[in-house]
Amino acid sequence: SFKCLVEEVTATSRHYVDRLFDPDPQNVLQGVIDMKNAVIGNNRQKANLIVLGAVPRLLYLLQQSSSSLELRTECAVVLGSLAMGTENNIKSLVDCHIIPALLQGLLCSDLIFIEACLRCLRTVFISPVTPVQLLYTDPTVIPHLMSLLSRSQHTQEYITQIFAHCCKTPEHQTVLFNHGAIQNIAPLLISPSFKVRMQALKCFSVLAYENAQVSMTLVNVLVDGEQLSQVFVRMMQRDKPIEMQLTAAKCLTYMCRAGAIRTDDNCIVLKTLPCLVRMCSKERLLEERVEGAETLAYLMEPDIELQRIASVTDHLVSMLADYFKYPKTSVLDHDLKHAHELRQAAFKLYASLGSNDEDIRKKITETENMMDRIVSGLSESSIKVRLAAVRCLHSLSRSVQQLRTSFHDHAVWKPLMKLLQNAPDEVLVMASSTLCNLLLEFSPSKEPILESGVIELLCSLTQSDSPALRVNGIWALMNMAFQADQKVKVEIVRALGTEQLFRLLSDPDTNVLMKTLGLLRNLLSTRPHIDQVMSSHGKQIMQAVTLILEGEHSIEVKEQTLCILANIADGNTAKELIMTNDDMLQKIKYYMGHSNVKLQLAATFCISNLIWNEEDGSQERQDKLRDMGFVDILHKLTQASDPNLCDRAKTAMQQYLA
Amino acid sequence: TNPRLCLTAPIEFGVGHVVDGTSLVSAVCTAQGFVFNYSTHTSLLSADISALLLLTGDPAFNYQEHELNERLKRLYPAVNEEETPLPRSWSPKDKYSYIGLSQNNLRVHYKGHGKNHKDAASVRATHPIPAACGIYYFEVKIVSKGRDGYMGIGLSAQGVNMNRLPGWDKHSYGYHGDDGHSFCSSGTGQPYGPTFTTGDVIGCCVNLINNTCFYTKNGHSLGVAFTDLPPNLYPTVGLQTPGEIVDANFGQQPFVFDIEDYMSEWRAKIHSMIARFPIGERLGDWQSVLQNMVSSYLVHHGYCATAMAFSRATETMIQEDQTSIKNRQRIQKLVLAGRVGEAIDATQQLYPGLLEHNPNLLFMLKCRQFVEMVNGTDSEVRCFSVHSPKSQDSYPGSPNLSPRHGATNAHVHNTGNTDTLHTNIFEYAMHASKAKHIKLNLFTNVVYLHSPETSSAVDCVFWCVDSDSEMEIEAEHYSNGVTESSTRIMNGTYKHQEILQADDSSVDDSCSSRQLCGGNQAATERMIQFGRELQALSEQLCRQYGKNATHKKMLQDAFSLLAYSDPWNCPVGQQLDPMQREAICSALNSAILESQNLPKQPPLMLALGQATECVQLMARVRSGSCSFARVDNFLH
């Protein structure tokens, strides 16, 4: 009997479609009106009509100039109704090219018809299945929509809603901006209609996001004699609907981050920030709490003062702990999604809060079960949560205190290492960056991490295509080599391989180069280590040093390189690699006379090591260097204005006097 | 002593303002540095007196005082300061000896040794925080943290030891600057907020709706510090080491924190709670109750045509028949036009026995008639005037309301008259204050009335009273109040001046040169004769029912008019104001209705009065939400 019923429904649907083909236009109109009444709220009927091909016919009728305006309007209304159904409906409508047809319809002069078309377009465009690009295909569409904004409150509501949903990229922002979106939409912020005000506000939030041009323009806009930022501030008043408060706060946040409003402006410090903190409260809906926390994290990310204020506002730090109390395990998919969203938002906000201030980091780690939550967050199924958790951990890992205490107590390195094994790049960047901090010499986690065989992993990171990952990999190795055992150093050199080491020394990324030099310097410390490394890799290292000193590099890079040379000069056997290399000695001489004090200092250090008295063969080296004119230079440097350089030169000179 | 204080000023100013002499004297003594006399009356007036003392001295202070009054009125409109004064300064009487006060008792400094916690000292504000504030807020600026910055800001109940910092004892709550901890009636603090020091402004907000408290620092809310607060807490600060100085702001200055924004959130919350009051299945019942209220209101005041149109549109029944309404309407118009003699005749004719059974009412009417004779408006004297008197016949014959009146009716709720209405509702409410156990169900609804005759819309919001609650209000009080308030409602419904203009141009035209009894000798004689009759009536009533002070006063006032050459500009001349007719008009209308076994005041006004009273009662039982559920918020 079910089948029978379905057939019956299909039969009536068929009847509706048939009437669209009636030769009498009056019957067609009545048919469309009946169809309109039949589909309202009836998804099955909508699906049936679409399957039976009603859409192309409706579109045909809508586009025919011979159709009466009433018929065309009713067609648009029915199509709008069909669009209100399932996502599949929308897909079918889009496949039937409903968008160009409706956009064409907007050229008609009749307001009722235009409104019907816009209402349908709005419904289609706000669906996630509709490609937003379709709004921008025809370049005449945006200017025309702008011109329709003055027609009625309905056109204003639908058009701003379309803009708010279809502005997804910087290109979209630019197109809308260039067509006068700001001037056209700003007056709508004081429209008598709440819906219009709300959609206009949403437009501004998407337009201003990470867009300096839009943001800078916005601050100078006046609405009815009032500055736009003040209009937004009024919209954040606590008796306004939450959606409005939140969206206005987003607008001001984006304007602030784009540099259009100072972070110490009262509208940020006293209005936007507290408003966003309120959005994180337990009383708010889950979505609002998520958006509130994410926006707040974004707002204060670069500003320590805002972080400090937020950290004491309305118990934000403990309020965020509630984000973890949403059920983690649930049979319902959307519950799980909410739980994930809440947790990642909280981690993001913690990360932002703790990014600069040591006291705030302490406060965060002291929040109930915080470290446990981060640890379990690192191994969650949702990538978004894992990423946010590792960001949070990274932010907290900037604290010496936390590295020594909570990080060690909770063995965070374990899940972190696990996370590093197989993760997308964005997670890897954060995780490896955190690892760098965990490998600092005062971190008690350094030992266990070393033992876990992390070297291979770090070496593989240095081969990544991503400069950020290469930096983090080599940085971690550098930290690891600092004051490390001979065994560890040997292992690093072995695992990395000299080939890779020298490849990194010619890396296009200066950061990578700097950290690689740092690694070399750390490897070449304490005399036995220097001699050992130089005995096995001396030739290549000397070559690399020569190359860098001859190349076009920054002062910092050259300084670092000269420091390496100074370390080499400190070795027992290694110093011979310099003494026998006249070319290198000439270079040192050159840098002793360089205009940059740092380079002079590093070069003098190197000479000082070479002529040090108590070592074997010091006399010969002193003689050779005197012959090469170093004493004269040193003598000159004892008159240097820089006290450090002067001292260093005097110390070196004393080696000759002794 | 403060050099700005002035001894003579308060006495001059005191005459009009200060009721009690001893309190004034004692306050002056304090100001002069004498030992204070702990009088029982001072608490109510001390703040006002200190204001008076300084009135002449310092214009800046006067300005600040004005600012303070304006701000307090705006922040706490529901507070009746005669009943529950707001804190305006620190109390010089309620402090530990180590505390020094200056700058109009707003600045607090520490003057003890400050060796240890035993040297802690506190001061309370002059008054506790009234519950009717709903949300209360004050700020304290740290002028100097002194030696160690052991400052505590908070709340405490009366009687809590002042040799302590706020928060350490029972019924005492504080937030301390040195460690940022909150102290909730305990010597051990809880981590709460940041520390605070010189230059910081700390705010303390008491939410009397949910009995919580939060602090602010430099305009940033720090989150809830205390819950389940007891009532009647005083703003309190405590200091403990030398050099500590703090300034209070009880509203003298704009606040750093946007407290009004916070209040707006709670106002919106309470309003939406009222708007969403669940009525469930009983929607129909409620609607008919509302319709009956509107209808009975219209009927009561005799808006006959509008009432009929309304009943047709809503299909409701009107209890009273149309003739009866029109009769009452006619009598009311006579009274309001100042033709009290005719009104008495008409009443006696239409409702025989009514006035005989209400000798007090009759006496009041006759007194009024006498006043109207002086005015020259009563027909008994008007018949002597040069202009031909307008007979009863020529008076707007149809008791039907003219469209103009209908239109005015619609305006009552929309225009300026609401203020008078509210004042009188408060009077009513005060009269009814003895009523116990008033149980009110609040709900709102909107009734739109489109009367075809007047083409006006009445847009009201009503409260409905649980029917059995009426019984619990003492009849005497409630009659007083309701009569009064409904009178003033009529105030707006009739434009007396216009009636007079239409009916009697002689009175109106000669406004600038008004004469006794219209300046007619015969009329004056008639008036004097009437006066004798009135005197006789008074004596008769006195013999019959015993002395009646009200009557005596009424008669005296009326006769006093004759003692002045220009009665309109004399100390008792206010009686001649047409406005004064309203009270007696309403009393007569109520008496007639009562004689017909109809309610003597419209249920709408009763409900309005009870709602107002309920809100006041909420303040007394310390339900802070009353602050945001004010009846006038719903009267537009």
From TrEMBL, chain A:
Keywords: Cytoplasm, Nucleus, Repeat. ARM repeats lie at residues 53-89, 496-538. SUPFAM superfamilies: ARM repeat. Gene3D superfamilies: Leucine-rich Repeat Variant. It is found in: Cytoplasm; Nucleus. The keyword Transmembrane does not apply. The keyword Repeat applies. GO terms for biological process: animal organ development; proteasome-mediated ubiquitin-dependent protein catabolic process. Pfam families: Arm. GO terms for cellular component: cytoplasm; GID complex; nucleus. This is Armadillo repeat-containing protein 8. It comes from Cyprinus carpio.
From TrEMBL, chain B:
Residues 389-416 are annotated as: Disordered. Residues 324-381 form the CTLH domain. It comes from the Eukaryota. Coiled coil: none annotated. Residues 389-401 have a biased composition (Polar residues). Residues 68-255 form the B30.2/SPRY domain. Pfam families: CTLH, SPRY. InterPro entries: B30.2/SPRY, B30.2/SPRY_sf, ConA-like_dom_sf, CRA_dom, CTLH/CRA, CTLH_C, LisH, SPRY_dom. PROSITE patterns: B302_SPRY (PS50188), CTLH (PS50897), LISH (PS50896). Belongs to the RANBP9/10 family. This is RAN binding protein 10. It comes from Cyprinus carpio (Common carp).
